[in-house]
Fold this protein.
Amino acid sequence: MHTLFRDPAYNRYLKRFIPASVIYAGAIVLASMLIPDHAKASPLTIGIALLPGLACTAMIWAMARLLVEMEDEYLRLIEIKKALIATGFALGVAATWGLLELYTDVPKLPVFLIFPIWCFGLAVGQIWIKVRDK
């Protein structure tokens, strides 16, 4: 079994992250079902629309707690490297696409996609680290 899975901090992370991600997915479905396209902002629509964001914030908090609670410095370094790669990836996508939007008529990139893009960047970081360290 991978060393990371033996770390108690990682187990606590999973107990925080998995429920938050399930709530995030459910809140996205709920908001999509309950709020019609181009709905006017009201306390109800704003409240429903904020639910996925709160769950997203809980996922980010779980990731931050993982870094704080990890005792193995090498494993923490790997997680930090993944986060740095993901951040660079997400910022690169956002900046590049933003310039395309500014100068061309490409479709707009919804801001809410930045977090999923960042999460995809974590996977890119994991692959990069595995390939580089072999």
